[in-house]
Amino acid sequence: MLDGEAINQPVLVADRISKSFGSVPVLFSISMDIRSGEVHALIGENGAGKSTLMKILSGFHMPTSGQIVLDGREIELPANGQTEGLGIVLIHQELNLAEQMTVEENIYLGREITKSGILNRAQMQAEVQSYLDDIGLEISPRDRISSLSMAQKQMVEIVKAISRDARVLIMDEPTAVLTQAETELFFKQIEHLKAKGVAIVFVSHKLSEVKRIADRVTVLRDGQWIATNDADDLTPDAMAQLMVGRELSDLYPPVSEADVDADLVLEVTNLSAPGIRDVSFQLRKGEVLGFFGLIGSGRTAVFEAVCGLSDIQSGHIRLNQDEFRPRSVAETRDSGLAYLTKDRKEKGLLLGQKMRPNLTLFALPKFLKRFGLDQAGEEVALERAKRRFDIRSRDSEIAVGDLSGGNQQKLLLAKIMEAEPRVLIIDEPTRGIDVGTKQQIYHFIAALAAEGVSIVVISSEMPEIIGISHRVVVMREGEISGILTGDEINEAEIVRYAAGLKKGPDQ
């Protein structure tokens, strides 16, 4: 354990750090210090500069001006992220693990222990087992990474850091894809690391988690330092206001009264497919229908079947009163139904390409001319999408992978809407984006519904399901356990159905 004096000692200090990429400034004289045995949360909207600052603190970017101070001495960090030798480790949001290798092989990759020129597996496995035991992770050094849960993979990254004698651990959205139970396990390990004196930088958009786990909070906005406060002195609402510079009392738009007489646009009857059984529901014109359930409940599996991404075993789908059996994504699109994936980086966007081809790819047939692409039409569509969905970029030629997460999500929504669907399915619409962009997304959804678009929102965030839905379908173990309306749409009722404590009269 650290004594009180040691806890207050800064290990790593950013002193008036500025950064420009070419002629474009992105950080403006940022200062913050990171202390032993504390969790220092770094929060801000997408594009606030958090990722750039993290990469500077871990040696992936060099600052344009300012100083980095380690243990009281000014230092130039080694380039290309080679700061692990100094005890500074960055765990990226996209985990850096070799899926087909074992836990032991991942932890010692590139620094294997040898004896007489031969891998000393016995020593490496014994040391890894000691690390696993130390943090209470019940897996084997011989387990393949591909067999582990997301939370266990996150823990393996932490073990890698511990094995490198990490003194400063920088974590980017570490709970973004964890379940509640997995997050609880993760937080126990964070407390364990704090007790050992590790300084932790915790970057997250989940402000309730920041409130719970952080000792101090630094807020960035538009590349500038806004505040550093003790977490005890901030509520999640106060954090959000500092991040966006305005009140967020209108985070969710008013939900209009559902039109129970509106036309049925989607009817699913007794649908069975991989991961789901006997699923039935209806969607009306201009309705926002929320789908909630715990991880593995089958929420996404329903709409993979509806959109032709998985094989239907039995049941019926009617789209605009006509029998519908999708055979491809293109056929689904041409029928006026579109699915916005929850995995924008792997399945939704071409990160190495510019915005224009990303925007028009899904609706490509409308931009094809006899002798090639209508590039002028694509440019008009991009400018329209940037205005409509508030996609912010200093340079239209930037690669999409260099946009902030919130702008990527808005571009993905614009891409899907370019095909002009009348039925829109959005899976995890606000995963990994900041509260200000969440507000924008919610208002986009409400505006689309007011225009007559019928929308399904699949989400693991109960507040947003409650805040934007006309009705809520709750799933459990591949089946619908309840469909809620009106005053039934509240946290207590949803939890009862999701946990199997209650079932609807027709379920």
List keywords for this structure.
disordered N terminus; 507 residues; 17 helices; single chain; Rossmann fold; alpha/beta; 2 domains; 6-stranded mixed beta sheet; 26% strand
Report what the structure shows.
With 507 residues, this protein is α/β, with parallel strands linked by helices. The chain has two domains: 4-244, P-loop containing nucleotide triphosphate hydrolases (Rossmann fold); 264-498, Rossmann fold (3-Layer(aba) Sandwich). The strands form six sheets. It has a six-stranded mixed beta sheet, sandwiched between helices. A six-stranded mixed beta sheet has the order 18-21-22-15-23-24, with helices on both faces. Strands 2-1-4-5 form a four-stranded antiparallel beta sheet, covered by helices on one side. A hairpin with a 2-residue loop joins β16 (314-319) and β17. α4 (121-135) packs across α5, α5 (150-163) runs parallel beside α6 and α7 (207-213) packs across α8. It is globular.
- In terms of quaternary structure, the protein is single chain
* Total domain count: 2
Let me know the CATH homologous superfamily of the largest domain.
Answer: P-loop containing nucleotide triphosphate hydrolases
Q: Unreliable segments (pLDDT under 50, ≥5 consecutive)?
A: 1-5
Mean pLDDT: 88
Largest sheet: 6 strands, mixed
Principal-axis shape equals globular
Specify the helix fraction band: 25-40%
Give the C-alpha Rg: 24 Å
| Count of helical regions | 17
In the CATH hierarchy, the third-tier topology of the largest domain is known as Rossmann fold
Number of strands: 24
Placed side by side, the strands forming the largest sheet appear as 6-9-10-3-11-12
Taking the alpha carbons of the first and last residues, their distance comes to 53 Å
CATH level-two architecture of the largest domain: 3-Layer(aba) Sandwich
Q: State the CATH class of the largest domain.
A: Alpha Beta
Q: Class by helix and strand content?
A: alpha/beta
* SS strand fraction: 25-35%
